[in-house]
């Protein structure tokens, strides 16, 4: 659904903002540029806190629906789902805001400006914040982010439902412990081919209202004061018309960490002059001294404040209650039955089946009498939610999901098995749940092992006090003694199902060789345990696909601080992965046939049509993927350029057409300019990536046809 805002209305809002700002003193204007903007009573301006989070639900402001973490939702490969979730989040956001305003609550996390989504590219699986993103691919990230933003900001022609924010601009993905002083050096080719496309789509297509700068420098310039990023690219090339916010306390890094300025006054002047309008933090108070010192003009400050008040007016904050269609959204929608059902439905879409030897899954409830559920994530609420989360009224852990689903029909034995990352639980010897684990294995018909990570082990620097490296992972291994416990379980000879919770790729090479069934469950949200239990017993088939590459070992990765894309992600990898991007199994079988191409790649684009048939025994969904490879030297591997998700009943066949825009055949040259060069291009179509590892794992091949441009 294309969004058409009332441009005449927006221009009137800008004029109203200019008129309002013209009545303020310099000091009043400066303090409106802090995230804690105070009230100006003489102008009937209420206090407003700009800082709010909504990555996968309204966060940090009490009870709200906690949807699956962003990386989990990316695995669904479903743009319609993303907009539906974005709309649900903004509905709860408005409901909570309306209630907060009624009681004059203007505290942090109580506004309508949400600093989400995170559209950074997950280039390295060690990065702790990768689970906030939509994965490693710029095309997938772009498509999901655009629809999420449209759901958040809404389709009213006069007002935004909430203001979304594309962050962190740009070239930002760790290491977390260096982010305040790090310079991400990157070629123009990698910049425009990998790091910028999602931001460009958010601005040009979704009309995102806010862009947040990153902590780091990019090619020498601090991102929150970068002329190249904020002036030349964002506002110049892309025509961005919203406001820019700094990351929190990032501008003080200019002089304290990056050493590109010498004083707070020089730092704030650099930021505002280059287009940073809002300061998450307090350093913009130094703008008063910066004006006195002649480092910045009041007119430049006016420009920023007008942008900020234009956003507030687009949100309806200065119009009558009856004028704004979202003002009557009741608090009763928050955590409602409909929201819980949507959350469960979303969680079902996100699970990725990685291995299913001899069709162990789904389990037949009538043939299972005892189940052993073992592992530190079996009953771990943190492993449901990821970070930047809200508070659910009920969390259904994996253990609780099975308990609720099976009731008294099947006996469940439970053991934590081991600590998530330490060598023992409480006092005692190393691996001190051995006897309990072995006993449960002996007593059980089947074992479900719940291993992996939680956001206490991967996340933002300082956010949760990470055990390892300021939020980043030191390696891709299961932490602590988890693998030792898994080996113990495997030695029992019982059928084993491994459920992995993590927001990133793990090197589970031994597990792939020795465990018969493996499912990647991510951080599946507050309803995650229900979705997992239903999947294991075949209430539906898993349909997720990996939005990231799973590598075989940490040693294959380039240096974490190297921002070149060489040997990173499926697009540039030359070695064989453990599990490829775009991979995911089903309980049924799908065949893709009769591929046909129509159109002109250079002008109107190409329609790729094919027939998709469910040749298995149950209704299920599948993700059809189209990749393009330029057949010349020094070009990326085949890249995802189109996808769609569809549901087919057993035996059903449907024709599917995916349109490739001319841009799907373009690549960036060394100057970052997109070019469609003459030559041969291969178009691949199927339900996986066209690589040898996907073929080996599935026993299938994708279709392909060559075209000449």
Give your account of this protein's structure.
The structure is a single chain. This protein has 709 residues and is an alpha/beta fold. The protein has three domains: 7-326, Glycoside hydrolase, family 3, N-terminal domain (TIM Barrel), CATH 3.20.20; 339-548, 3-Layer(aba) Sandwich (Rossmann fold); 590-708, Immunoglobulin-like (Sandwich). Helix content is 29%, strand content 17%. The chain has 21 helices and 23 strands. The strands form seven sheets. A six-stranded mixed β-sheet has the order 9-14-13-12-10-11, with helices on both faces. A hairpin with an 8-residue loop joins strand 17 and strand 18 (639-648). Helix 1 packs across helix 12, helix 4 runs parallel beside helix 5 (138-153) and helix 13 packs across helix 19 (528-536). The model has no long low-confidence stretch (mean pLDDT 97).
Biggest beta-sheet profile: 6 strands, mixed
How many whole angstroms does the radius of gyration measure? 26 Å
Separation, N- and C-terminal Cα atoms: 32 Å
* CATH class designation of the largest domain: Alpha Beta
Unreliable stretches: none
**Order of neighbouring strands in the sheet with most strands:** 9-14-13-12-10-11
